[in-house]
């Protein structure tokens, strides 16, 4: 009787462990809408081929306060892009899933300052995404925590 209970217990623990591992190791877990840490924008992350990218789908202040018209990418270093709207802008690209809830090798563009940074992301639970932008080495950078919408 004790042996049967032990077998059932071991089987249940194994099934729970495997279920947890499979849920945690999901390359597509970042797909969806994420609000940035400041609460000023929402980025839709999606798969493009075998890589992940994101675009701005919502802005707290979508219009330029000076003109009242939709915000444009006026800080981009290439003047050709100064007339493209920020809304709908692909500002993240090139991410590959590496291992256990981490996506690396990507770039992130900040339309506020017109700069592009190397970037990596990692999930912190099911609803928090740590987005780390950096120049050169990951140690020199900034992490923003995004919330799933």
From TrEMBL:
Keywords: Signal. It comes from the Bacteria. Gene3D superfamilies: 2.40.128.520. Residues 32-148 form the DUF2147 domain. Transmembrane segments: none annotated. Residues 1-24 form the signal peptide. PANTHER family: BLL6627 PROTEIN (PTHR36919:SF2), BLR1215 PROTEIN (PTHR36919). This is DUF2147 domain-containing protein. It comes from Lacibacter luteus.
């Amino acid at each position: 009787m004790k042996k049967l209970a032990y077998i059932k217990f071991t089987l249940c623990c194994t099934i729970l462990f495997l279920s947890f591992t499979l849920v945690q190791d999901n390359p597509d877990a970042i797909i969806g809408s994420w609000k940035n840490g400041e609460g000023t924008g929402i980025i839709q992350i999606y798969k493009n081929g075998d890589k992940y990218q994101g675009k701005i789908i919502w802005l707290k202040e979508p219009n330029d306060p000076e003109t009242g018209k939709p915000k444009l990418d006026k800080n981009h270093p290439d003047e050709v892009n100064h007339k493209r709207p920020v809304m709908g802008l692909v500002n993240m690209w090139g991410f590959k899933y590496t291992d256990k809830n981490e996506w690396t090798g990507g770039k992130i563009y900040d339309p506020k300052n017109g700069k592009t940074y190397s970037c990596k992301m990692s999930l912190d639970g099911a609803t928090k995404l740590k987005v780390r932008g950096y120049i050169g080495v990951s140690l020199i950078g900034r992490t923003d925590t995004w919330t799933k919408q």
